[in-house]
């Protein structure tokens, strides 16, 4: 006799009693579910279906269910495997998840608990408990390492300097070391600093930088009973989230910060791209929690839809064997998290956000995380003056025909119906234009320039307003050089839209900065910056929207006077009275006129730079 079983099918928080015949195939079961829920079989995904562990059964395979078994149905209408995912991205995400699983060890958790002070373990209030843990971990337990002390017993000097790196020894490899930093003291003793990834080893060394800190702190948080995530920021930082009172709370052990997710973008000045969260039973893209500029971030490794589908696929595999109650709890947390995301667009940077405090000042500055750009922006907010007006025009670009007659185009620059296209939306392009007639920038007390621009969109690298006394054919290098680097006898006001940390030490990827090396070839490196600032509320300049800029140069009465440059963007003063005596810098004692124009460039990333209006006068 062909007996049937009754299951509880749960879909959208509703339960359906479904009778399943003993000889029912997976294909028949899908059709049966469709008749009850209207969920197309193509998009049906089942959790806790007995023989669907880590895979979907074949259509003709008989399903095995128990009487009164609870089965959860998900409707993944958009679910599909990504067309393409780059191996490096795939390996990074899946490798980090494997690391997360390693914390699920009773032995390791007990080792951590044995070191936690009793008052922390006894605290019942979860928020207070986490705050106590952060304070103890940062101020008593773990130590930050800028450079290690000399390992020579007789020397032991705390001052060592980096001299490179080395391969790990067999012993170091046993503690999951992939790189060893090498340091040398003044007495020429060599000290090795292995970057340990073994959390068990870190319980004895108790030192390192953000990677070691977050690694060890994750274990302590889990050991104390917190539902914990390990957070990976692709722009080189790691921290945690803990689930408290129905919310995922940001915590950073390096800074001892609690529930301040915008601190990295709004305080440190980081230009985020991807931020992923890893927990025992899921992987999530949580970038939107840490950025108010999500549509303008440099997220080009994979399409957004493919990333969503890829993470859905991974999470389906991870959870396929979970008990029903545990799975339902996870999905409820996801529902609450999705609801919270709906309010993210209303957030702004709070006034108390600061730069990074962990690490030496030199190290923080080299990484562009000291928050100086935000301090500078706060100063600019206090120093706003009226936008200048051009009373006596010298040059005005008001037609395509005038542009063709009056401008010298260089490189990949072209004139289109939309304006002057400094670079097209293509990789590795550099272009610019110069007004053919030199302009006197000294005799009338300086000059005022007004121009409108549009940058399409969210790529690299940026553009520059340039004054030069070199040649009408001058053009600098592309990429991070923005088309002006290499032009002799010049001063440039750059509008930089990409954070080039290695070659330029850019403070961030959305700033305006004044650069000159006087008579030498100009450089976009920030050691040659006279001053820089950010647009109001750090609004991206490469957002595909037309922006209006004013530049005012005010001359002094002599070589040693305080000639200054002011810059406004979209009615907000970004740079206030930056000292720059152009007459002296460019050696304009006899000839007070220069070539004036604009340059731009792209590199591995691309965007179009378009000038839609340009006028100059005083």
Automatic annotation (TrEMBL):
<dbReference type="GO" id="GO:0046872">
    <property type="term" value="F:metal ion binding"/>
</dbReference>
<dbReference type="GO" id="GO:0031152">
    <property type="term" value="P:aggregation involved in sorocarp development"/>
</dbReference>
<dbReference type="InterPro" id="IPR013320">
    <property type="entry name" value="ConA-like_dom_sf"/>
</dbReference>
<keyword id="KW-0479">Metal-binding</keyword>
<feature type="compositionally biased region" description="Low complexity">
    <location>
        <begin position="372"/>
        <end position="384"/>
    </location>
</feature>
<dbReference type="Pfam" id="PF18483">
    <property type="entry name" value="Lectin_L-type_dom"/>
</dbReference>
<dbReference type="GO" id="GO:0030435">
    <property type="term" value="P:sporulation resulting in formation of a cellular spore"/>
</dbReference>
<keyword id="KW-0862">Zinc</keyword>
<dbReference type="Pfam" id="PF01841">
    <property type="entry name" value="Transglut_core"/>
</dbReference>
<comment type="similarity">
    <text>Belongs to the transglutaminase-like superfamily. PNGase family.</text>
</comment>
<feature type="region of interest" description="Disordered">
    <location>
        <begin position="342"/>
        <end position="384"/>
    </location>
</feature>
<feature type="compositionally biased region" description="Polar residues">
    <location>
        <begin position="345"/>
        <end position="371"/>
    </location>
</feature>
<dbReference type="GO" id="GO:0044671">
    <property type="term" value="P:sorocarp spore cell differentiation"/>
</dbReference>
<dbReference type="InterPro" id="IPR002931">
    <property type="entry name" value="Transglutaminase-like"/>
</dbReference>
<dbReference type="GO" id="GO:0000224">
    <property type="term" value="F:peptide-N4-(N-acetyl-beta-glucosaminyl)asparagine amidase activity"/>
</dbReference>
<dbReference type="GO" id="GO:0005634">
    <property type="term" value="C:nucleus"/>
</dbReference>
<protein>
    <recommendedName>
        <fullName>Transglutaminase-like domain-containing protein</fullName>
    </recommendedName>
</protein>
<dbReference type="InterPro" id="IPR038765">
    <property type="entry name" value="Papain-like_cys_pep_sf"/>
</dbReference>
<dbReference type="GO" id="GO:0006516">
    <property type="term" value="P:glycoprotein catabolic process"/>
</dbReference>
<dbReference type="InterPro" id="IPR029071">
    <property type="entry name" value="Ubiquitin-like_domsf"/>
</dbReference>
<dbReference type="InterPro" id="IPR050883">
    <property type="entry name" value="PNGase"/>
</dbReference>
<dbReference type="GO" id="GO:0010628">
    <property type="term" value="P:positive regulation of gene expression"/>
</dbReference>
<feature type="domain" description="Transglutaminase-like">
    <location>
        <begin position="202"/>
        <end position="255"/>
    </location>
</feature>
<dbReference type="GO" id="GO:0005829">
    <property type="term" value="C:cytosol"/>
</dbReference>
<dbReference type="InterPro" id="IPR056573">
    <property type="entry name" value="Lectin_L-type_dom"/>
</dbReference>
